[in-house]
Amino acid sequence: MSNPDVIIGIDAGTSVIKAVAFDLTGQQLAVSAIPNRYQTRGDGGVTQPLMQTWEDCAAALRGLQERLPNLAARTAALSVTAQGDGTWLVGRDTTPVGDAWLWLDARAAPTVTRLAAGPLNRARFEATGTGLNTCQQGSQMAHMDRHLPELLDGAEVALHCKDWLYLNLTGVRATDPSEASFTFGNFRDRAYDPTVIEALGLSHRRALLPEILDGTQITHPLTPEAAAVTGLRAGTPVSLGFVDMVMTALGAGVYGGAGDVACSTVGSTGVHMRAVPAQGVHLNAEGTGYVICLPVPGVVTQVQTNMAATLNVDWVLSLAADALRDFGQAVTHRDLVARVDQWLAASRPGLTGYLPYISEAGERGPFVNADARAGFFGLSMTTRYADLVRAVTEGLGMAMRDCYAAMGPLPQELRLTGGAARSRGLRGILGAAIHARVRTSAREEAGAAGAAMMAAVAIGAYPDMNACIAAWVTPLLSAPEDPDPQLVATYDRLFPAFQAARHASPPVWEALARARADMTPIGD
After folding, report:
1. Helices (DSSP H) in 327-381: which residue ranges?
2. 383: closest CA among 348, 345, 429, 355?
3. Rounded to the nearest 5°, which phi and psi values hold at 35?
4. Is 242 exposed, middle or buried (0-12, 13-18, 19+ CB in 10 A)?
């Protein structure tokens, strides 16, 4: 019989569920991925069937066994993280109450507007460190309570996605300190806060909130029923991970090392995080962003998120693709991405500005405005396509700086993950924008790794998270790339112009939104 030497991290995203096997030193051994579908409704709803998500999770675990022989006997523990926010209602036993409302669901927008204007909203923000938005379970439950009370009436517990999977794995109804505190609690003591719950108008629904568990300290055994459908052994310890955002950051290096460290995931969206002591949190006057606990005592992450990051780059590259296609020249997105560094080298920095709010959902960090839209400023007759590509990438750097400035002083070191990390030119722009040296991580599945690290600590493979980080994270970080001093000086001059354009734009965005609403669709 094999000694248990594998830890499984489950990362259940919105559209893909991954089960990833690691050895006890953090080396990735195998990955199994299963598509996970969701439905978009005409009323702004975005939902996912609970049982489908559990079945997909079980299928991912079975698929992992096909890639790693004797996995059941080798598994020392498993842990689960998943997409954040959203509302997964469960009635008696494990019976779902309808489909889950995902973080993409926009139905609670009018309720968010109402609650944000309420007398207790600032107190709620001071406790949670988190601005209200339609993603959150608190906002969604407040909306249900007023407009669809039968959903809450039929529920016994309100869970998040990872909590739902943990229930199916262990039979235990629980949530973790990260999602509990930024939604309903206080990040300082990692417990529910009565004032926060009152501010959401949900004091009478308090019984729906589950027990809070720290998965680095407490595990529960895999049930015989879960073992039968996953192929793993009953009794295997299961750890409840924190929300996927901080698990990814933990696996990529948001915490650990000398100096003031930050971690940005610059993919389709942009997530900008820094780990700070709970007493050192900087709460901005606008009441935006998140404060999310790390699985390290007394340490939290401050978070600001951009709705769109490399989606802006995809858009500007699509302009070239469309033009070439009109002239009969086929070109792939990959071909264009490969030329980005060449366009950056062929253009001068800081000549043109760009507000990178290309998402049709507007922006949420470090300000919230559903009408926000992208735009260039400073164009002239000498502006060429390479200058537009540079302006877009520099806009990402300015938006990142805007987010980090809302959290306090700029960090000294940036650990970068996501698509942007592959471009040396873009790494240089982002580092210079925030005055930080840049390091990248070779970790492929950072979210699953972060969850697995919690299980590794829980079963005693490491004495604490610092020791686990030293083994799992630090060796995978690249050598630091120092920012170019000339580029730093250029972006110091550009940033005030970026902020001036951003602050001056809301009346324009509002007028355009009104104009769009009055337009007759083409063909009508």
Report:
1. 333-338, 340-345
2. 348
3. -60, 145
4. buried
Q: What is the CATH number of domain 258-440+486-509?
A: 3.30.420.40
> Could you report the per-residue pLDDT of 337-354, keeping only the tens digit for each?
889 999 999 999 999 999
pLDDT value for 521? 59
Least confident of 38-47, 193-202, 203-212, 391-400: 38-47
- Residue ranges of alpha helices (H) inside 68-201 are 71-74, 109-116, 121-128, 137-147, 149-153, 161-170, 177-184, 194-199
Q: Which two structure tokens, joined as six digits, stand for 205? A: 């629904």
Residue-wise pLDDT for 404-433, tens only, equals 998 888 999 999 887 778 888 889 999 999
Residue 149 contacts residue 143 (beta carbons within 8 Å): no
Report the relative pairing of strands 413-417 and 261-266 from DSSP bridges. parallel
The per-residue pLDDT for 1 is 45
Do 1-83+214-253+445-478 and 258-440+486-509 show the same overall fold? yes
Quick one: pLDDT at residue 522?
Answer: 55
Nearest Cα to Cα of residue 307 among 257, 371, 217, 212: 371
Interhelix angle 424-433/385-405, rounded to 10 degrees, is: 40
CA distance 385 to 242: 43
Distances (CA, A) of 282 to 61, 276, 320, 390, 502: 40, 9, 42, 32, 22
Residue 407 near residue 302 (C-beta atoms within 8 A): yes
Give residue limits of the domains in the chain: 1-83+214-253+445-478, 85-159+177-212, 258-440+486-509
Please give the Cα distance from 22 to 26 (Å, whole number).
5
Tallying the residues shown for the chain, one arrives at: 524
Write the Ramachandran bin of 24: left for phi over 0, alpha for psi from -120 to 50, otherwise beta.
Answer: alpha
**Strand partners of residue 19:** 10, 32
Query: Among candidates 87, 213, 74, 65, which has minimal Cα distance to 148?
Result: 87
Q: Are 221 and 170 in contact (CB under 8 A)?
A: yes
* Contact by Cβ (8 Å): 168, 99: no
Structure tokens at 388: 């537009």
Give the span between the Cα atoms of 433 and 491, in whole angstroms: 6
What backbone torsions phi and psi does residue 99 show, to the nearest 5 degrees? -85, 155
CATH 3.30.420.40 fits 1-83+214-253+445-478, yes or no: yes
Residue 31 identity (one-letter amino acid): V
Higher pLDDT, 257 or 52: 52
Give tens-digit pLDDT for 11-67.
Answer: 998 888 999 999 999 999 999 999 988 888 888 888 999 999 999 999 999 999 999
Q: What CATH architecture is 85-159+177-212?
A: 2-Layer Sandwich (3.30)
